[in-house]
Specification:
- The protein is α/β, with parallel strands linked by helices and 895 residues long.
- The chain has 29 helices and 29 strands.
- A 4-stranded antiparallel sheet has the order 6-5-14-16. A 4-stranded mixed sheet has the order 10-11-9-12, with helices on one face.
- The structure holds one RNA strand of 76 nucleotides.
RNA sequence: AGGGAGUUAGCUCAGUUGGUAGAGCGCCACCCUUACAAGGUGGAUGUCGCAGGUUCGAAUCCUGUACUCCCUACCA
């Protein structure tokens, strides 16, 4: 790769040569550090902790890019910016990964025993626990690494215990026998939220139950016939005339010959199936409710592996699916299975193992939600916690309204073990922050800690304050909390609003008496280019690290930020990424051009404070400063409004379409001989780099380090906006902006004629610029060189229009200035091409004129529309009419 | 079933108080013009899902409708 001698920059931007080095320098200099005590205003974000043994996926990359943008922007804007990283022990996920690994060696966790198994997971954690942090560094995450926390760290564990004990003492945590969702492969309870409902093609079976003492049958319809082994009643609607006579009678459950009662409850839908419901209170959530109200027997027919147990008689030992098949066969043999129809219905699946979830009656720990939900609703209703986009607050509030007690125990070994000790003597529980040696009730020493661990989300719910040292009361902990709690933003996907966001609010309010964050920024999911969810099984997932290797972290970040629209999912496209890689290269080369031409630039003693004298500045200098002011304003407004893509797009357009396409081109002839232009170039480049930094930190820091005008480092320099950059921006000039816009349009008109008439760029065109406006003449004259250079013309005549015979003519308007661009075509082109070009324009103008005439002849429009709207239309009509006359004349001359 | 989001150029999507539709990519033509071919210049492309309504004027507001997606709940 060739290097420019003056600047030492490669002629292509090569992220591999830059990223790791720049990141190491930032870290070494301590730029990511935040301070418990500071006179700067605080700005804090807690990173949603990724799975400690996981790896960075594309969704994290998006999530982190947004957070890093906010953090870097605020850090540069004078805030004490704190981004706290962390990792999650991810109970089920991590345990199953390690179990799978052991299985390869033929070892199960049970043969290993709890202690050794947990040691194995810790080994695993030590091996892979840093991987995700390394990957975050690749992305450029500017976290305060000193504050990194793991959910099983001692401090966090103390917080978990304190919360558990406190809630237990307030009777908000209890142990009880309830029907819960059970994952067979994992042998643990899972929460409602961990159940995924999927449409499944199955069958519905119609089974006859013989009514005792008669030859009649009651027919029930069921999708899970094997559960009949646990039936303890049949239920009909009390007003259902078909079944009045059977209410109170007994029927016999086929196959196991249990006598059960026929009961009546309005819960039954008469229209559905046969109108008779079989009630299996221990294996169905609806039946559970009926079982409770009617005081039915609860017969558990499954064991922890979701195989049928001793209550299932001859079916004991079978898996659920096997039992279903066998039961059907046996019923068929007895003539009691009278119908079997295909049936599509939704079935709960364990989101971790994929297995069908079985409702299972078991002893679990629960957290009451009733008292907590109210305050958690109010903070969102009042706007103390704001969701962005706002519509998610509805989703949140709806869930708070239907919230049920949270099953917090898991039959796993990896996690926070429940701090409750069961007493063998009195059967009571001792719940304590420190390990007890005897029962708190009876004093017996025969106590044993609960085997279960807490749901991972329990510790996650405390994350905003447990990471800040709560409940420890040392100075560091207290000051951290005082400065950074509540945090400024929580950035996450909508998939964990219930799991996590809601529970952090509940816990924050209960234990910190304040919300955990002010704004919840919800972003969409990253999908593949076809809009499908990315997943390993579909083979469509994209590894962000591969993308960084290929295109650079900055390009990846920019491609996210430029297409981030208010909470919507975004489709990932490598092609688009390539486009932003090109943009990075464009920036690099613009810098390379500037630096080359600033080689002899004399850095003023005042450094960044040195301003050029307005009268030494060229019109182009003043023009670019005016455009810079526009973009600084737009970017500031967009970032404040969380419209990140607007900010990214504004920068993209300014840099590519104004700075590169025009300013650099305009200044090429004069820059090396004009100290004022050099100074402006240095200033504008410096600002471009700073403005871009939060979006693409690596390339900007690298360029910044080579700038003649700079401070210590880009990452901690000031983020420019129209308030703090007033003095420089004041050198812009709106009047001159309009003038240069006119010059741009003249050049574009010339290029347009050349392009459409296919005149080779090698041909220098003759040019006449006709206008009778003295001001316009002056502007055109002063900028002849630029027009000639960028329009590739020679012999420019300014003033009279002269003989238009065999000339291409275009009219250019900018504000009140009108110029005719005239190019003699004799000997250059086939005139037919020009005739076509003119006719095309006439057609378009005809349409416009018809539309405008129609509009302006409508009296109601003139009455109702705003004055300026009417004025603009009138002016447009006038111009169009003038132009069409001009073109028609030109057409005549070609005939 | 209930709730939410969407439908705009070939593709991905913008379009903030209603005023003659925009970007990037792709496409076509010409060009290695000394920052960049990962580039330059020019060009083509849309009944803004469909049907009504409000209005002088609707991609934008209202009603209905079709299709897509997501979430929540679930009837055995």
């Amino acid at each position: 790769m060739s290097k420019d001698q003056n600047t030492n920059l490669d002629d292509r931007y090569n992220p591999q040569n830059v990223e790791a080095r720049v990141y190491a320098e930032w870290e070494k200099a301590g730029y990511f550090k935040s301070h418990d005590q500071s006179n700067k205003p605080p700005f804090s974000i807690i990173l949603p902790p990724p799975n400690v043994t996981g790896f960075l996926h594309i969704g994290h990359a998006l999530d982190h890019t947004i957070q890093d943008l906010l953090i870097r922007w605020k850090r540069m804007s004078g805030f004490n910016a704190m981004w706290l990283p962390g990792t999650d022990h991810a109970g089920i996920a991590t345990q199953s990964v390690v179990e799978k690994d052991l299985k390869k060696q033929g070892i199960t966790r049970h043969t290993l025993g709890r202690e050794k198994f947990v040691d194995k997971i810790w080994e695993w954690k030590h091996e892979y626990g840093d991987r995700i942090y390394r990957q975050m560094r690749r992305l450029g995450d500017s976290c305060d690494w000193d504050r990194a926390t793991f959910t099983l760290d001692e401090g966090v564990s103390r917080a978990v215990r304190k919360v558990f004990v406190t809630l237990y003492k307030k009777n908000m945590i209890y142990k009880g026998l309830k029907l819960i969702n059970w994952s067979g492969p994992l042998e643990t309870a899972i929460s409602d939220l961990e159940v995924e409902h999927k449409q499944v093609k199955a069958a519905i079976y119609h089974i006859n139950y013989p009514v005792d003492g008669t030859s009649a049958f009651l027919t029930v319809a069921t999708t899970r016939p094997e559960t009949m082994l646990g039936d303890t009643a049949l239920c009909v609607h009390p007003d259902d005339e078909r079944y009045q006579q059977y209410i109170g009678k007994t029927v016999t459950v086929p196959l196991i010959h249990r006598k059960i009662k026929v009961i009546a409850d309005t819960y039954v839908d008469r229209e559905y199936g046969s109108g008779v419901l079989k009630v299996t209170p221990a294996h169905d959530f609806n039946d559970y409710k009926i079982g409770k109200t009617h005081d039915l027997e609860f017969i558990n027919i499954l064991n922890k592996k979701t195989e049928l147990n001793e209550n299932a008689g001859p079916y004991q030992g079978l898996k659920v699916t096997e039992a279903r098949k066998k039961v059907c066969e046996d019923l068929k043999a007895l003539g009691l299975l009278i119908k079997e129809e295909p049936h599509v219905h939704s079935v709960g699946h364990c989101s971790r193992s994929g297995a069908v979830v079985e409702p299972f009656l078991s002893e679990q720990w629960f957290m009451k939600m009733d008292d907590l939900a109210g305050p958690a609703k109010r903070v969102v209703e009042s706007g103390t916690v704001r969701f962005e986009p706002e519509s998610w607050s509805k989703v949140y509030l709806h869930w708070m309204n239907i919230i049920e007690d949270w099953c917090i125990s898991r039959q796993l070994w990896w996690g926070h073990r429940i701090p409750a000790w069961h007493c063998e003597a009195c059967q009571e529980h001792t719940v304590s922050e420190t390990d007890p040696t005897q029962c708190a009730k009876c004093g017996s020493k025969n106590i044993k800690q609960e085997d279960d661990v807490l749901d991972t989300w329990f510790s996650s719910a405390l994350w905003p304050f447990s990471t800040m040292g709560w409940p420890d009361e040392n100075t560091h902990s207290l000051e951290t909390q005082k400065t950074f709690y509540p945090t400024s933003y929580l950035v996450t996907g909508h998939d964990i609003i219930f799991f996590w966001v809601a529970r952090m609010i509940l816990m924050g309010l209960e234990f910190k008496k304040d919300v955990p964050f002010r704004t919840v920024y919800i972003h969409g999911l990253v999908r593949d280019s076809k809009g499908q969810k990315m997943s390993k099984s579909l083979g469509n997932s994209v590894d962000p690290i591969d993308m960084i290797d290929k295109y650079g972290a900055d390009a990846l970040r920019f491609s996210f930020l430029a297409h981030l629209f208010s909470g919507k999912d975004l489709k990932f496209s490598e092609q688009r990424l390539e486009g932003y890689r090109n943009f990075m290269n464009k920036i690099w080369n613009a810098a390379r051009f500037a630096l080359t031409n600033l080689a002899d630039f004399k850095v003023p003693a005042e450094g960044l404070k040195a301003l050029p004298n307005a009268k030494d500045m060229s019109v182009f200098d003043q023009w670019i400063v005016t455009k810079l002011a526009d973009v600084e304003k737009k970017v500031d407004e967009a970032l404040e409004a969380e419209r990140f893509s607007d900010a990214a797009t504004a920068l993209y357009q300014f840099i590519w379409n104004q700075f590169c396409d025009w300013y650099i081109e305009f200044t090429k002839p004069t820059i090396t001989s004009s100290p004022a232009t050099q100074l402006v170039m240095a200033h504008v480049l410096n600002r471009i780099v700073r403005l871009l930094h939060p979006f693409c930190p690596f390339i900007t820091e690298e360029i910044y380090s080579k700038l003649p005008l700079k401070s210590e480092a880009c990452i901690i320099d000031t983020y420019p906006n129209i308030r703090n950059d007033k003095e420089f921006l004041a050198l812009g000039n709106k009047q001159i902006e309009a003038e240069i816009d006119l010059i741009k349009e003249v050049i574009t008109a010339i290029r347009n004629i050349r392009g459409e008439l296919r005149i080779s760029p090698a041909v220098k065109l003759q040019l006449r610029l006709a206008t009778n406006n003295a001001k316009a003449i002056e502007i055109l004259k002063t900028n002849q060189t630029a027009i000639s250079l960028l329009g590739r013309t020679e012999n420019i005549a300014i003033g009279d229009e002269g003989n238009l015979n065999k000339c291409a003519v275009s009219q250019v308007n900018s504000t009140d200035l009108k110029v005719k661009v005239i190019i003699p075509l004799e000997g250059l082109v086939d005139f037919n091409e020009e005739v076509k070009r003119i006719q095309k324009t006439i057609e378009k103008l005809d349409k416009d004129i018809a539309l405008l005439t129609n509009k302006l002849s409508n009296e109601k429009f003139l009455q109702n529309a705003d004055e300026d709207v009417v004025a603009v239309d009138k002016e447009l009509l006038l111009q169009s009419k003038e132009q069409i006359v001009l073109l028609k004349e030109a057409l005549e001359r070609f005939k």
